[in-house]
Amino acid sequence: MRLAYYPGCVAQESGKELDMATRWVCRALGIELAEFPNFSCCGSGFVDEANEVLNVAINARNLAIAERAGLDVLTICSTCQGMLTLANVRLRDPAVKGRVDGALKPLGIEYRGSVRVKHLLKVLTEDVGLPALKAKVVRPLGGLKVGAFYGCHLLRPADEMGSESAEEPHAFEDLLDALGATPVLYRGRVMCCGFPIQFVKPETAQRIAATQIDDAKAHGADAMATPCPLCHISLDSFQNKAARTVGHALDLPIFHLPQVVGLALGASPDELGLPRHLVPTDAALAKIGTRAVA
Q1: Per-residue pLDDT of the chain (294 residues; tens, 9 = 90+)
Q2: Model's pTM, two decimal places?
Q3: What count of other Cβ atoms lies within 10 Å of the Cβ of residue 229?
Q4: Count of alpha carbons within 13 Å of 188, Cβ hemisphere only?
Q5: According to a count of CB atoms within 10 Å of the terminal CB, is the N or C end of the chain lower?
C-alpha cells in the first residue's frame, strides 16, 4: 500500500513524536509513505472561518499534488482529515469549484476530484484490517485501560465526513481491543478537547479538557489515546494548566493513536517518542511491562 503522507503542521514541529510513531507503524505494516514537501497547511479551520473558498483552494492544491502522483492521502490529524475531506465535498458545488479552479489556474494546478482522504485510524481498521493487525501484535496491551478520544473533526459533520456515528463511534475502541487493551467508554470521548478556544479563552478551554480527562478517569482509564495532535496538545501539553484551573490533579497519560499501535507491535517507548510527552507515561507503560529509557 502506497499513500501520499500528509503529516500536518503539528507532527512536523511540536508533536514530532506523532510523526516518529506513524513512520514506525507504517514500516512495520508495509505501508509506503510518499512524501511531498510542497504540501501546505490545511488551514486548521481558522482560514475556513474567514474565507471558505480560500480554504477549499488551499486544500484542493494539496489534493491535486497527490492526484498528480496517482495516490490517496494519509492523514494523522483529525483536523487535517476534516479540512481535506470537506474540500472534496464543497468542490461538488459548481460555484465553489469555478472560483477554486480560477484561483489555482495561475499556479498551473487543476484538481479533478479523484483523491480519497484517509485518516490513519481508517487505514488501520479497514485497509489493513483488524484481523491482520491483531496477528502482528507481539506485546499485547493487556491490563491497560484506554479511553479513546476522537476529536471533533474526525466525526463531524458526519454526513459530509462519511464517518461512523458521531455520538456512538466504535472504530477506535475496536482497534484498542485488537491490540489487547481494554477500551473505556465515557461520554467525553466524542466531545471537544477545548483547543479551538485555547488562545482566546484559555481558562474555559482548560476546564473543557479537564472535564474530559476527569470523565475518562472516572470510568477507570489508565490513559487516553487520540487520533488528533491538537487534542493531544490540549490534553497533554496543557494538562498541568488544566489541573491548576480546576484545582485538582489530573495525572493521566495521553497517547497518540500510532503510539498505542506501535507499543503493541513491539516498538520501544523511545522509538515512539514517548519521552517527549509532558505528562509522564511511565505508569501506563508499567502495566504492559515496558518503560522509556531516554
Answers
A1: 999 999 999 999 989 999 999 999 999 999 999 999 999 999 887 776 667 888 899 999 999 999 999 999 999 999 999 999 999 999 999 999 999 999 999 989 999 999 999 999 999 999 999 999 999 999 999 999 999 999 888 888 877 777 677 788 999 999 999 999 999 999 999 999 999 899 899 999 999 999 999 999 999 999 999 999 999 999 999 999 999 999 999 999 999 999 999 999 999 999 999 999 999 999 999 999 988 875
A2: 0.95
A3: 30
A4: 24
A5: C
Cα radius of gyration rounded to whole Å, the chain? 19
Q: Which three cell numbers stand for residue 157?
A: 459533520
Helices (H), the chain: 16-29, 46-50, 52-68, 78-90, 94-104, 120-122, 130-135, 152-155, 158-161, 171-178, 202-218, 229-232, 239-246, 257-265, 282-286
